[in-house]
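Async update (no meeting this week)

Hi team, since we skipped the sync, here's where things stand on the single-chain job. The sequence we agreed to prioritize is pasted below, unchanged from the tracker. I ran it this morning and attached the output directly underneath so nobody has to dig for it. Comments welcome in thread, and please keep replies under the output.
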Amino acid sequence: MRNKILLVLAVFGIVAGLLSAYLYGVERKPKPPVFSPAPNPYAQGIYANGIVESYQTHGENINIYPEVAGTVVIILVSEGQRVQRGTPLLALDDSVQRASVEQQKSQAEAALALLQELKAQPRRESLEVVKAQVNLAAANLKTAQDQLDKQRRSYELDPKSVSKDTLDTAENAVKVAKANLEVAQKQYELNKAGAWSYDIRNQEKQYNAATKAYAAASNLLAKYTLNAPIDGVVLSVNAAVGSYVSPQGAYDTYTQGMIPVIAMGSTGEFLGVRCYIDEILLQRLPSDGHMKAEMFIRGTDIRLPLEYVRIQPYVSPKVELSDQRAERVDVRVLPVIFRFAPPKDMQVYPGQLVDVYIAEPQK
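Output:
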């Protein structure tokens, strides 16, 4: 019985081995590729990675950063929306700055009121009071002078009728009255002349300083609202209501880096393509006026001709496509900018990666 079981197992093993050998030996047809790789359309062409961006005469997409830090309280636009220059895009909490503006405004108004008060001098009521003091001093002088004259006439008629001490006291009273009248007259002249020119000039400078402080605070308050710098389209909004942003941008939880709060693009008929040419291929690059290139949309068989725009004449490390700023990169590339008019029946978006071939010059 045991030998029969071993024989059955051996036969089963042989059949399983033969079946496995047959199955693994059958040739299988390879699966077709998801899309055909971009072929080189030129006899000799330089390949480059490219990225689609909004077409600008200078620079890349418009990255908007706030000039002040704060918490986002309202977002006034949506992604993909077309806006005109000056349109409010996003607002930050400005409660503290708004209170500071009101304080600066009140200080400027107070400085202006004091300046107007100085320029309006002399005040009629004050001048009447000082004039009355002059009249009082003059009356006191006349009273003292009359008293002295009586004392002198009495002394001249009978020297024994008035003592020398009484006569001296009357003369001193006249002198005091004259001095009081001179003081009152000078006080009257001083009030009549109005505010001192140096006081007015000093107050004018204080008012100008307060006005400029108010203007500076108002300008800073306006920075708490981000406005569209040009007519364009909102490509991305990278902040949410309640999030904190700063002049360095908004924190991106995915890349763990700072990114623009809002990215905008132009609304023209063209889109731009920024290609990165490896530095070892620069000698094979044709001159500016004879540069021909074609772009291939990844994942499709679509190819579009490109129009040369300019070269950004600065070779930099190739980190633009990976965004790894801390990584040591030995490959350096030269940016070359093209443009194209996207077909109406095809969607192409800024930030999309494309394959680009640039024709080498004929030898």
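Quick observations from my side:
Residues 95-116+204-222 form one domain.
The first strand starts at residue 45 and ends at 54.
Reply here if anything looks off.
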